[in-house]
Amino acid sequence: MKILICDNNPDDIHHLSHLLNEYCEYRQLVIQDIKICHHSNEVFRSIQDCDLLFLDVELDDENGIDIGMQIKTMNCRIRIIITSAFQDYLIAGYKINARRYLLKPIEKIEFFIEMDSIMNDYFKNQQGFYERTIQP
Fold first, then answer.
1. 3-state helix, strand, coil in the chain (%, to 5)
2. 136 belongs to a structural domain
3. In a domain, 135, yes or no
4. Does the residue 133 lie in any domain?
5. Does residue 6 sit within a domain?
6. Total count of domains within the chain
7. What is the pLDDT along the chain (136 residues), one digit of tens a residue?
8. Domain of residue 86, residue span
9. C-alpha angle 56-61-67 in degrees, rounded to nearest 5
10. CATH number reported for the structural domain that contains residue 28 in this entry
11. What is the value of pTM for the model shown?
């Protein structure tokens, strides 16, 4: 799995990276690549090969929801998890089909639960034929 983190706060990036490493160690998973982006132009250059995007909603003068809408036209298979310190953007996350909405600071237990769901879906899709209407 290739992961992209788009955030402009170094503390939030460090915390999320730490949670990802803890999760992978706990589940004995290997992540192929984790890239960090601070601005939309970096995201658009890096998004093509990614499987999962952690997207902050407030990026200096940019809006993560707008970035997510553009990303969906470029790579419709990417899973997006919105991260924000504000609940105000929860409904807007549906516009980009965000898989999850995590409030900062992200709690470890909540993160692990959400990642289990994301990873379960990812591995099912990697196995070949998977029909969502048949499989629960």
1. 50, 20, 30
2. no
3. no
4. no
5. yes
6. 1
7. 899 999 999 999 999 999 999 999 999 998 888 999 988 888 888 888 889 999 999 888 888 999 998 988 886 688 999 999 888 877 877 788 888 999 999 999 999 999 999 999 888 877 665 455 555 5
8. 2-126
9. 50
10. 3.40.50.2300
11. 0.87
